[in-house]
Amino acid sequence: MKRLNYQTLKELGYGGYLLKNAPERVLQFGEGNFLRAFADCFIDLLNEKADFNGKVVLVQPNARASSQGLTDAFRQQEGLYTLYLRGMEHGQKVSEKRVISCVSRCLNMYRDYEAVMDCAKNPALRFIICNTTEAGIVYRPDCRFEDAPPSSYPAKLTQFLYRRFQAFGSEPGKGFVLLPCELIDDNGAALKDCVQRYASQWQLGGEFLRWLDRENLFCSTLVDRIVTGYPSAEAEALAAENGYEDRLMDTGEPFASWVIEGPQELSKELPFDKAGLPVLFTDDHRPYKERKVRILNGAHTSMVLGAFLAGKNIVRECMEDDTIRRFLHRTMFEEILPTLSLPREECAAFAEAVAERFRNPFIDHALLSISLNSTSKWKTRVLPSLDGYQKLYGQLPACITASFAFYLAFYRGTELTGAGLLARRPGGDVYTISDDREILEFYFAHREDSTGELVHAVCANVSFWGRDLTQIPGFEDQVCRLLEAVQNDGPLAVMRCLL
Question: Least buried of 194, 252, 345, 353, by fewest C-beta within 10 Å?
Answer without folding.
Answer: 345
